[in-house]
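A favour between colleagues. Tell me how you read the following sequence-structure pair.

===
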Amino acid sequence: MTGPVTQALAAFRAEPRAAGWRELPFFNDGAADQVTARVDDVIETGAQVLPPPDAVFNALLLTPLDQVKAVILGQDPYPTPGDAHGLAFSYQGARRLPASLRTILAEMAQDLGQPMPKTGDLSNWAKQGVLLLNTALTVEAGKSGAHLKFGWSELVDQAVAAVSEKQPAVAFLLWGAPARKRAILIDRSKHLVLEAGHPSPLNRLNDFKGTRPFSRANAWLVEKGLEPVDWRLD
């Protein structure tokens, strides 16, 4: 009997929206099966893994490869049950917005002259072609970073490289050191790369605020003849 995350992987592979992503080596060389089996082993011990299995591959399903026009990379899902739903930085919890997301949305509001959103659910971005991908697609409840070395990062590297290769013009918004390391995977002759510090309040350099990534990305997309992203959430 297979575990719930392995079952989610099988469901992902069967999804028409996954067609482009399914071609990545990660899904064909056994890596995906090894990672999901490892996550299922953790679940077998009685630990709670987040997000729910049916949301683990949400970032790839909501933003098919041939529709990507912007990329935002995060670290791993929120470790509190009910908060994460498979999209980097996106939040469905009922409490105050997480600090990094609050910084992101405050920058967006100031950058675009919009009111601060009341919601932290970024699904609307994903449906417009903004790939919101975490370095690890799963986490153990209460243990931030617990699955960062499970092998998910291989998927992220391949996804970034595939977007760079296959898409004609994409704005990559790389925030913080782990995301910025992946700039080497991007063909800058085709794509826009906007690098900045991490929006976390723990970032002592505070080099995210004022970088205006949302308006800059949109101006570039328009320049390339593409529809800009409607970053509003409410």
Q: What stands out?
A: Residues 4-223 form a domain with the Uracil-DNA Glycosylase, subunit E fold (CATH 3.40.470.10). Residues 49 and 176 are 25 Å apart (CA to CA).
